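Worked Example 4.2. Read the sequence first, then its structure tokens.
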Amino acid sequence: MDTQQVSAPPCAPSPESGGSTPSYGVIHVHVRHTTAFTVVGNHLTRHRTLSLLAIGLAVHIQSLPDGARISIKHLAARFPESEARIAVALRELEATGYLRRSRVRLRNGRIVTRTVSYDRPGTEAPTVSVPRPRTGRQDTPVPPAAPPASAPLPPPPAPVVHRSAPVAHQPAPETSPAPAPLPVALPAPTARTAPPPPLPQPQDTDPELHRSASALLADLRRLAPQLTLSERDIETLAPGVVTWLERDAHPDTVRQALTTDLPVPLKHPAKLLRHRITALLPPPLPGAQDLAPLQRPGGIVIPLQNCDLCDRAFRSRHPGHCRDCRTGIHFAA
């Protein structure tokens, strides 16, 4: 009985003091962080509907300081995921309330995207005024002469602002509330080096043709939605279309000339139609005298005769037989 059983398995190590070691699953090794850490709620890390990419992206955004750039291009340059996958993850965070993006106008007139990150969805964010120019971090003053490399560059295209559940360190400013997001203004048209050619003008002011031309221009948006014109543009372009109709151009021909091979994107539909109406204007149809047979030298035209045998038309000064019938009669003889 005192013989040692060398074949028996060794005993399992005793658990450490203060806890028990599980027999399966993950085992955590906890280390107390004192610097460079981020507090994240389990409602985010254990979310049931968010994808792993969205959860990781939300944790990364919450770890960034206020004013960091989190545009899709910046995130795609930072991580191996594509811009399309990052855009889908950002939309997931917006749908679940962890992120909110809006467009605001700065005091200098520039429109930027303002991104607000929430530690917990449903937290009421304080009223935010028009963004002030950022010269440095508010918690750590930085001399303006030598800003650190991590300081944000004003103005960022997509700043992020974190809104934690207790927002005690960010009191609401006393300025007026932020205005509603405004649409981005279209750029001013480029200057022309030469004036555009004049629009063709009809020879007769027929109200029926003018009505047909206006209806044709207004109906172009059925074929191409990007060719939606205002009433003023239709009134301006109608005389050019009337000129096409005066020259016996079929309405389907006009539609095909105005809607074929449209540029993408189409920024100025009225200018494009004005150019096509002017540059593609067909000539008038030739008259009967233009289609008459050419006269031979001396003003003599050989008339047409009908063959006595096959009734084929041929040119001759005297009636009789055509060339083929004359050849057949010769061989028969």
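Now turn to a second chain, presented in exactly the same format:
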Amino acid sequence: MSETNTGLSAIPCYLMRGGTSRGPFFLASDLPADIAQRDRVLLAVMGSPDQRQIDGLGGANPLTSKVGIVSKSSIPDVALDFLFAQLQPATDIVDTTPNCGNMLAAVVPFALERGLITAQGESTTVRVLTLNTGMQCDITVQTPDGKVRYDGDTRIDGVPGTSAPIAINFLDTAGSVCSSMLPTGKVLDSITIAYRNTHIHLDVTCIDNGMPMVLLRATDLGRSGYESVTEMNADSELKTLLEALRLKTGELMGLGDVTNKSYPKMCLLAAPKDGGSISTRCFIPHVCHDAIGVLAAVTVASACILDGSVADKLAVINDGELKNVSVEHPSGEFSVELATDPNNPQVVTKAALLRTARLIMRGEVMINETVWKGNNNA
């Protein structure tokens, strides 16, 4: 931490893309230990609350209003602790409850860049604990000559060009925030919501296999599920209905009042259109996602193999214990590999996928010293 003579404090920062998300990464030791103070710092860093985030690093979109905080882990067999923070452009909320599988892809590259860990050879596999939910995963990155490799031939939809592959093997995703993968105890719930002096009855699947989500058929709301992101975000009636449903299902899922929470995510499902397994339109939670989050894709894919879920009759799934589920989204598709229990095909035992990441900028981010003077002058 250094300071300027212009009323600003400087905090070491690496701006990184992880999957289809982007945001600043920090060492935990470079931020305030006090949570309230830390959150004030992160708001100042990102320029929130302001829809344009004109005075910070945020990109005026929830996908670019994310922060990663990394430290060495004290847990046996775990190398790194990762805390994800979701901010919103126009609010002062800093949410560290949910996971983010996209930002997770940048954790090991960041840790190697900052010297928290060392490369193991041509590739490096590191176990990471996500502090938000206690989820662990093994992440493998390419490290020829002992350095992170960013260039490569792997393409993920939602990101231009190609990059080096980053493999993520999730070890325990079921019930990441909720009490279990099916927090209501049912594969299918029938929910009634009030809207414009009438009542609407909807079948939903409330599920958390990495991300708390409410899934429903787009046709049940009079939509095709193939609308563009622009059309979805301009559909005020749809967004009002989804929020009413989100608030009600949040209570049923044991999440309490979710008014100011970024979860559960809402997702409209339709039959696959482009050769995949299922088509999706996800909201996070009020803005339609241009793609789909990593753990949202894992959760949707899990619902696709559950008999009786809202995805059951829509999804096209291969036979066998190993399921390759291609989740279509507005900017392409996201492939998830699921392994199931041979004695109970509805129990997911493994979820694995490929992502990419890139270091965009390294240096110091400046904030007003009235927010925080830094570790040396707090």
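Notes for the reader: The chain has two domains: 2-165+357-368, 189-347. Residues 184 and 253 are 6 Å apart (CA to CA).
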